[in-house]
Amino acid sequence: MALCSQLQNLSSLISPHGITTTTTKAPTRRHVVVHAAASDTTTSLQASSYEEGKLVRPKWTGETPLSRMVRALISFKPLYSILKLGARQVFISTAEKNNIPWREMTKEILESQVYKELDSIQNQSLVYPDYYLNPFHAYDEGNLTWLAAAEAEAATKSMVRRAIPTASSVEEATQIMRGNWLNAIEQHHLQHSQTSMIGDILDIGCSVGVSSRFLADKFPTANVIGLDMSPYFSSCGPA
Fold first, then answer.
1. How far apart are CA 48 and CA 182, in angstroms?
2. Mapping DSSP to helix (H, G, I), strand (E, B) and coil, where does residue 204 land?
3. Is 20 helix (H, G, I), strand (E, B) or coil?
4. Does the reported pTM lie above 0.90?
């Protein structure tokens, strides 16, 4: 498949409860090293650190006159369609200015063999909650579409880059964000478990498996299971 990770023995399946899952068997010896653009040396994800600052809510959110005006504007469908298209183009161009090849990554996936995976993954008897069928992130069909799945990894990279604006590159931003996330999981496990060995990890809402791959790299002896309701996302997962 187009999104190929270094994980081994990946298979996609349907659970008895009708939830689309992706199961990953991690290799027995793994160590992930991330190259930061600002340095010629390699740095382990485990060494990353980042002090989270105070989050500032945008002025157009919440119950303010501006937020109510924004909601009124986007409720008008013709105007919403125009705004959605413009926002989407800005998002893509901004990502590519940050050296994230959004269009190239998407094209590679859509021209791959991911379509063949859908029949073996999709559960036709699964009843989705109403919210999951609504437009989401500028996709009219929400997460139940090939385009949303094909763009998921590029969008994730862009989100990470915007979340850590002080980073010198996408790689450094990823190192900071994922490193802190993985270290928090490891510290929680060591604090509440009697053993340092992690046997199984369930990654709920894993999208196309980006976080699942990081988990498998960080905890090489664990069986990592990525679970997502969208069969399109699971089809585009790592192989």
1. 10
2. strand
3. strand
4. no
